[in-house]
Amino acid sequence: MNKPIKTGIASFGMSGMVFHAPLLHAHPGFEISSIVERSKDSTRKLYSDSKLQRSFEELLNDKETELIIVNTPDYLHYEHAKSALEVGKHVVVEKPFVQDYDQALELIKLAKSKNLVLSVFQNRRWDGDFMTVAKIIKEKMLGRLVCFESHFDRYRNFIQENTWKEDPASGSGIVFNLGSHMLDQAIVLFGKPVAVNAEIRTLRTNGLTDDFFTIRLEYSENMSVSVKGSLLVNEPGPRYILHGTEGSFLKWGTDPQEQDLKAGKIPGQSGWGKGNEEDWGLLNTNVKNDKFRGEIETIPGNYLSFYDGIFDAIRNGGSVPVNPEDAALVIRIINLAFESNKQGRNMMV
């Protein structure tokens, strides 16, 4: 096996501590060589073999580091990814990729010019519920799909203090945060839409950032596609709603991997990513005149698959697990969604 990729994590907040560090630590193809913590010392206890660095600039100047995980606040993604690429580092950017479509195109061009790997951590492509939905669609279990509706709802009726995530100047909000996942999934399933129409609102008392959205994606096919999110849903309905000419599929619940990572479970262990039976989807179909109504077991999720792909891309010249062009398209759709909400009309993609 090729030697592990020496990897630096640019921030040790929620995404670094919960997602990237545990996944990289569990993967034999990576060595967490450096972690940036500006003031805390969590790294010394959790990953004592890694260098503790106090600034992103210090990480950039570390000659041993081959790959940098840019998981700093969203508004710094472009600046930090660009700086890492310019000094010859491969880069994985936490979602959302950047905040402006032109910035995304610039980073893609820069990475190609330097023959460097650039990808975006769209881990929810490897959610078990999404993988199950993708299989339902691929195998045409509903006949011709006519309606796809995806929800990502939470209940947070308070305004969190002292965080950039509640600051509208930083470009934060639920559309960039959760919508970027859902739009990426739609692109995986259906490709580039023809047009975008969106309703984006701030509904929480004293809220300053968007916390509700419905984004409709138009395709040339006779099909309705929408993604929806809200921070004021205390009794969630199905996560996915699919209807086709021959049947319907409803899927509840969320992938367990995030909660398992928060609980300190080790990725890749036996049973990893296996969802609860009570969250199995309900399929009601009459494909090929064979009537079926019953539960469909959820495919186990596997976030480690993302880093499998990153390792293959860096060491073996394989394809990246998330194409940066796809990630750029997500940002373009988000930009157009805000413009659609402002103008009250469809925006062509």
Brief digest:
By secondary structure, the protein is an alpha/beta fold.
Into how many domains do the coordinates divide? 2
Instruction: Examine the coordinates and then state which fold CATH places here, giving the name of the CATH topology of the largest domain.
Output: Dihydrodipicolinate Reductase, domain 2
The CATH C-level class name of the largest domain? Alpha Beta
For the largest beta-sheet, the strand count, sense and barrel status come to: 9 strands, mixed
* Oligomer designation: single chain
Give the CA-CA distance, first to last residue: 43 Å
Strand residues, percent: 15-25%
pLDDT under 50 segments (min length 5)? Answer: none
CATH superfamily of the largest domain: Dihydrodipicolinate Reductase, domain 2
What is the number of E strands? 15
| Topology order in helix (H) and strand (E) letters | EHEHEHEHEHEHEHEEEEEHEEHHE
Shape designation: globular
Chain-averaged pLDDT = 95
Largest beta sheet: what is the strand line-up? 14-13-12-11-7-10-9-8-15
Gyration radius over CA: 20 Å
What class, by secondary structure content?
alpha/beta
Helix coverage percent of residues?
Answer: 25-40%
CATH architecture of the largest domain: 2-Layer Sandwich
The number of helical segments is 10
How would you explain this protein's 3D organization?
With 349 residues, the protein is of the alpha/beta class. The chain folds into two domains: 117 residues, Rossmann fold (3-Layer(aba) Sandwich); 194 residues, Dihydrodipicolinate Reductase, domain 2 (2-Layer Sandwich). It is built from ten helices and 15 strands. The strands form two sheets. The chain has a nine-stranded mixed sheet. It has a six-stranded parallel sheet with strand order 3-2-1-4-5-6, with helices on both faces. The mean pLDDT is 95.
